[in-house]
Amino acid sequence: MKLYLVRHGQTEHNASSLHQDEKVELSKQGKKQAIILAKRFSKIPIELIYSSPMNRARKTAEVINKKIKKEIIYSDFLKEWKNPSEVIDKSIDDPEVKKIHELTYKHRDDPFWHYSDEENFFEFKKRVFKFINLLSKTKKENILAVTHGGPIRVMILLMMLGDNINGDDFRKFKSTFRLDNTGITLCKKENGYWVIQTFNDHSHLG
Questions:
Q1: What are the b/e assignments for 49-58, b being 16+ CB within 10 Å?
Q2: Binding site as annotated, residues
Q3: Confidence class of residue 148 from pLDDT cuts 50, 70 and 90?
């Protein structure tokens, strides 16, 4: 099985380093990126598309599908990590936002702690792991999943290290491995094990 993990096209929130909710749409640049990405996938034998139902991922998947015309399955397992409502539309550099994230990080090893209505890392990891398990039930060999930076990183960590990953693992991975909008990560399952063949390939953007 080949699994192509794709981060959605750019949004204005991405460009401005703002936290975003489910409703945020692709920017003009993001739409252009999605069209370029669609041309690339027209040359790849995709059999099935999974997509996060969040607008920015959904629209990216729909643009791709205008070219390849395959079934799209929208899965909540592929949604971005849910932040506290208090940080939505605010900059990642906002002092209050930083305090919330610092407090969340302080409690990173507590599977029951929440600041407010967010997912903690344990809940997020469990949700993404369900998507990996879902893949084992399909007979398709070439699958595209349009999602977000968080789920892609967690999937890679789960494939590499198994279910024992923690918040520190994710934090280190995120700070080291950048994911560009519409970057492609190719994972291949061989003899029951996952192999990461490419990470964040965005050569289609020039």
A1: bbbbebbbbb
A2: 7-14, 56
A3: very high
